[in-house]
Amino acid sequence: MKNVSAGETVTLAGFTVLLVRKKVRRVTIAVLPPYGEVRVTAPYGVSITEIERIVSGKRAWLESKIASFSADPGKERTYGEGEYALLWGRRVPILPRVGAPGVLLTLEGRILSARADDPKKRAAVLEAFYRKEVQTETEKLLPFITAMTGLSPTSITVRKMARRWGTCYHREGTVHLSLSLAEYPPECLSYVLLHELLHLRYPDHGSGFHAALDRFMPENRAVAAELNRMRRLSYGAWADPPENDPPKNE
Ligand SMILES: [Zn+2]
Q1: pLDDT-derived band of residue 140, with 50, 70 and 90 as boundaries?
Q2: How far apart are CA 66 and CA 74, in angstroms?
Q3: How many Å apart are CA 135 and CA 137, to the nearest integer?
Q4: Closest Cα to residue 3, out of 205, 244, 188, 213?
Q5: pTM of the prediction?
Q6: How far is ligand 1, taken at its centre, from the CA of residue 176, in Å?
Q7: CA 195 / ligand 1 centre spacing (Å)
């Protein structure tokens, strides 16, 4: 699960921080692109109180740095030039079409041409693309998960879902996945797919369900945490370009 950061998310001096303990000499603080995540790396022996004191001393710098990554709340997403789209945990720029109306979404070398001038239509183009991405990746993953678990759904539908990553109707054997999963690291889709398939055998989140989840994906908790963390960070990820200055430290 390469995209999963080790460490724990904690609140220090009012900041949400990913705290990583490592064999290092001193505490370092970085605000990372593309989402303005705050990461604090600290030696094993340093107390949380001391780390909080250091973070607190960097308050002004942290606030301005985080703000440089955040979306302008007064700005509406247009899915147009100068914005970004997320794809499998990466942020890719949206470019203008040359000599024609509309925009190009250059997603990982694939070009998605949205001729429409209307932001709603461009959003629909992106959603259709995400749906297809999730379908394609699910088709690749499913044989492995089925071989591993012995579970196979009667159908999988990828669609726009407002509040969930996936659902399973265990009586019918059907699974629905959110097309938004294409925005997050690939292991997030693996996790959600495994999670929903396990509901075919364990309808609730009881101990049997969790034991199976731990057996088939020991890192499931870290992946679920990563998905929720990225969801929070992704709200403004379409707007401002990341600054490329090297991570600064304490
Ligand atoms: Zn569930």
Answers
A1: very high
A2: 17
A3: 6
A4: 188
A5: 0.68
A6: 12
A7: 6
**pLDDT higher at 99 or 221:** 221
Q: Are 111 and 105 in contact (CB under 8 A)?
A: yes
Domains of the chain and any CATH numbers: 8-67 (no CATH), 84-126 (no CATH), 127-234 (3.30.2010.10)
Q: What is the pLDDT of residues 221-246, one digit of tens each?
A: 999 988 888 887 776 777 765 444 33
Distance from residue 210's CA to the centre of ligand 1 (Å): 10
Question: How far apart are the C-alpha atoms of 182 and 189, rounded to whole Å?
Answer: 8
Longest dimension (CA), the chain: 60
Q: Which residues contact 234 (CB under 8 A, 6 or more apart)?
A: 35, 86, 183, 184
Give 199 Cα–ligand 1 centroid separation in angstroms: 7
Query: Residue 196 has which token pair?
Result: 């929903």
Concatenate the DSSP letters of all residues of 163-228 into one string: S-SEEEETTTTEEEEEGGGGGS-HHHHHHHHHHHHHTTT-SSSSHHHHHHHHHH-TTHHHHHHHHH
